[in-house]
Amino acid sequence: MFIQKNYIANIIIAVIIIAIVYALFYQDIYKSVDSDLKNYTSNTGVFISSDNKITIEQPKAGDTLDGILALKGRSEEPFTLNLKDGNNTILLTLNLEAGDFEKEYVYASPQLEKGKLEIADFSIPVNFNLISGQEVKVFFSNISKDPELKNCGLTYPVIRHTSDKNPSLSAIISLLVGPNKEEKMQGYFTNLPLRIIKINNFEIKKGIAYIDFSQELEIGVAGSCRVEAIRSQITETLTQFENVESVVISIENETEAILQP
């Protein structure tokens, strides 16, 4: 009888311990989930900032993106949005004005399936379809292939999967993001400044790609070799497309006195 009581007591203790471990484990999980969903309104499926000034109706939590970010919502003040993949790599940065917004945006090629949309004091978890879209090339310099970097204008391609809707724009956005970790280990590097560079305008007319960048493209850029490499990276990335024969690069609508050595 005594043994039976001990047996039952041990079972009860074991059950209590398992329950405590289970509770602690899932508490950590829900804490991490809550960090992304703390501003989620379950009855409407929208995200609202803590000061109620920014509302995001689309995308929804857990949506799968196929090369295009469909964004819908409203804001009472200007704000900045960052789309990131699981490596915390910025795929898209938007500076939006106050008011209603509903628009589609092309983003750079992600490396991981999981990602998030960071806005104000919250983030929206999203997924990326890594196999969708067109396969394109993005061009970088490579110190392994050219150890002494004698050929300034010689750049080398890596593969990205981009949006079918606008593969040329998606390719150039991927160029701005730079090489991933594996590519860096293989010697690839970018000559573009390591800061957020905006594309002010992009269009293709009669075989010419016109692309206008923000001033960040040339801040701190010096040396004829680096300037030549930057132009090569942009030009090679765009002229791979059949409808692009040449490229006109501008910065804040200026084409002449830019990217000087």
Written description of the protein model:
Helices cover 26% and strands 35% of the residues. The chain is of the alpha+beta class. It folds into 2 domains: 89 residues, Sandwich (Immunoglobulin-like), CATH 2.60.40; 118 residues, no CATH class. The strands form 4 sheets. It has a 5-stranded antiparallel beta sheet. Helix 4 links the parallel strand 15 and strand 16. Helix 2 packs antiparallel against helix 4.
List strands and helices in order, with pairings.
Layout: H1 2-37, E1 40-41, E2 46-48, E3 54-58, E4 64-65, E5 68-75, E6 79-85, E7 90-96, E8 99-106, E9 114-119, E10 122-128, E11 134-142, E12 156-162, H2 167-177, H3 181-185, E13 188-189, E14 199-205, E15 208-213, H4 224-239, E16 246-251
Parallel strand pairs: 4-10, 15-16
Antiparallel strand pairs: 1-2, 2-3, 3-5, 5-8, 6-7, 6-9, 9-10, 11-12, 11-13, 14-15
Helix pairs in contact: 2-4
Largest sheet: 5 strands, antiparallel
Compute the number of structural domains.
2
Helix content: 25-40%
**Proportion in β-strands:** 35-45%
Give helix and strand order, one letter per element, not per position. Answer: HEEEEEEEEEEEEHHEEEHE
Radius of gyration: 24 Å
What's the total count of β strands? 16
What general outline do the C-alpha atoms trace?
globular
Distance between the termini: 92 Å
The neighbouring-strand order within the major sheet is 1-2-3-5-8
**Low-confidence blocks of residues:** 24-37
Secondary-structure-based class equals alpha+beta
Number of helices: 4
Mean pLDDT: 82
